[in-house]
Amino acid sequence: MFCKTKSFVLAGLECCQVEIEADRSGGLHTFTIVGLPDAAVRESKERVTSALKNSGFNPPYHYGRITVSLAPSNIRKSGCGLDLAIAVSILQSTEQITVLKEKAIYIGELSLDGTLRETTGILPIVIAALQAGYKQIFVPKINFKEASLIKGIKVIPLKSLNDYVRYLKGCLKIKIPKNTNQHRPNVKYSPDLSDIKGQEKAKRALEIIASGGHNLLFSGPPGTGKTFLAKALPSILPPLSFKEKLEITKIYSIAGILPQDQPLINLRPFRSPHHSASSAALVGGGSKISPGEITLAHRGVLFLDEILEFPQKTLENLRQPLEDNKICISRASGSVEFPANFILIAAMNPCPCGYFGDFSKECTCSKPALLRYRQRMSGPIIDRIDLFLEINRIKFKKLKQVNDQKQTEIIRKKIKKTREIQNQRFKDKKIFSNSEMDIKDIEKYANLGQQSQSFIKKAVESLNLSTRSYFRVLKVARTIADLENSQNIKKDHIAEALQFRKTDWN
Fold it and tell me: Is-above-0.90 flag for pTM?
């Protein structure tokens, strides 16, 4: 007897629909899965066999030849989420159940006793099922909160394979829990921007990058507060829209790091990988292609502390995502594209000993050593950073100053208003901030008067700015103008943007 069920498998952040066909025929007792299954899918034979037996059903070896085909056969199937669909198709092909729910999708990994385990990637699968026109989806109960974020499709939580059969026969009524409150919680950030003593120029730089999504490099001696400043950035970032929340939650669901008690990511990510991280850990990849730190930082912050301690090969992998806001990973098994639209904050010491330019301690590095140290970061990477700032030690009297606790809230409201200006500007485009503008957008929205054009022309010639640097200066100037609610970019806005530009790296 022949039976067919439907499911989905992940391919990067996208989903591919899979038809699970089960056929029973005469012959020796065999159980075969075909259709380019990976190791995890091939092992489902053992999981499904034990789950059926321990749930009180006849396992496949009680019958003749059982063949399960995963179509389309030209796409590799990976993961454990097909277990439930395979088990249901076998139950019908062996006539242990007689009917199936129409227009339904089955997702879930089976344990050996027939219970359903937590499965990664539920959210993108539910979205894909809805877009494909399916009316209901069966998921593990532990994944229900995540799956129920999407409206328009009936999500049915199951504890076990037995629950599905009893539900199918009308012997079990599954109570659908009410959706939990997914609003952004009130969070007290630590550290907060108001906790920073002095460093007014650094706070201004954080305000600019939070408003426009730009990249920033801090340079300074040890202990001057570079890391503290970077960690304070999330306290002033604008709140996520629901679309952005879903986008981030999909990534964390696929990566398998979505907290059970937090089915929707409400806060912008802040990722801080150690400088010993490999290229695959930073940009993604591996035998089973998975998102890396730059994708986990999507719509948030990627902080690279001691950036010059990262291997140069690893840093060079940042070229494409810093320019295109995405990363394309190609392997023999296929090619996957992950989003990587993040704010990069990097921190570094000015020299190997850390005290070049420090007024409190003399630098012991030779000029060749300093040159070799700076050359660990190539020109193309430097060119992709919008703001450069040297952090110096602050005087004792500023350490004793009491900061205004309302400062953060004032700056946050200002940044939120600036982002609203940009949302209105780009409402017909698929971008969110000034840093994402391409050349055509810059020509359209970077409105320069005659005085401003003359000023930036002189700056490009005298500072020998590259074409990329020129356009990045205009993006930053556009953000500074937005902070002042100015329609046109003025000379002062360009001058401030140029103050943060590094022209003497080596």
Answer: no
